[in-house]
Amino acid sequence: MQATTLPDGPIAEKTPADLHHAVWALLESVKDPEIPVVSLREMGILRAVRDVGAGGLEVVITPTYSGCPAMSQMHDDVADALSDAGIPARVVLQLAPAWSTDWMTPEANAKLRAYGIAPPSAVRCGSAVDAVVQFATRKGVGGVADVVACPRCGSENTTETSHFGSTACKALYRCLACMEPFDYFKPY
Fold first, then answer.
1. Into which CATH architecture does domain 5-93 fall?
2. CA dist list (Å): 15 to 2, 11, 22, 82
3. Which of the residues 20, 82, 117, 141 has an alpha carbon 20 to 30 A from that of 48?
4. Looking at the predicted structure, is the pLDDT value of residue 33 above 90?
5. Are 175 and 182 within 8 A, CB to CB?
6. Can you spell out the DSSP letters for the chain?
7. For residue 182, what are the contacts with CB-CB under 8 A and spacing of at least 6?
8. Tell me: the pLDDT tens digits for 147-162?
9. Distance of CA 141 to the CA centre of its chain
10. Does the model's pTM come out above 0.90?
11. 6 closest CA partner among 15, 51, 75
12. Rounded to 5 degrees, what are φ and ψ at 64?
């Protein structure tokens, strides 16, 4: 029987801490099925790798919102990556705490922008002023709209054309400078 190997060596030779690190490294290759330039880790969807006894692991994932239609695909992609590497693990969906754009890495934001999707605004969930700012900055709620820079030309002269873009977690915007439409990943 051939030993199963991870990117940096055989699985049987790993300490628990090394195995966790290797699993995180392995799962770095699992991309978001709706935005294939970012990994599930960069998006903050991969939450934890936990020991569950008898050498097994549990990988925790949290959807960007509870009705995300891509969640079953994400679950299967993580499970397949683990299975292909010979890692005894199960994938667990965890809804609480709810996912937040605060969990996205700076790399995810940069990759979204390069892909043509405006990343979430600077004021994000969990900040001290979040509730007030998010309430006051939504269109139609007595304040000004979020300042959303065009990911193509950088202009802040943009307008929301639909609160829902290609997916429910994004809004559709149009740049009034270059006239290009683009998605904006809404802050949560």
1. 2-Layer Sandwich (3.30)
2. 19, 9, 10, 17
3. 117
4. yes
5. yes
6. -PPPEETTEEGGG--HHHHHHHHHHHHTT-B-SSSTTSBHHHHT-EEEEEEEETTEEEEEE--SSTT-TTHHHHHHHHHHHHHHTT--EEEEE--SSPP-GGGS-HHHHHHHHHHTEEPPPSS-TTSTTHHHHHHHHSTTTTSPPP----TTT--S-EEEEES--SSTTEEEEEETTT--EEEEE---
7. 116, 117, 118, 150, 151, 152, 172, 173, 174, 175
8. 899 999 999 999 999 9
9. 28
10. no
11. 15
12. -65, -25
Which position has the token pair 């970012």? Answer: 38
Write down the domain spans for the chain. Answer: 5-93, 111-185
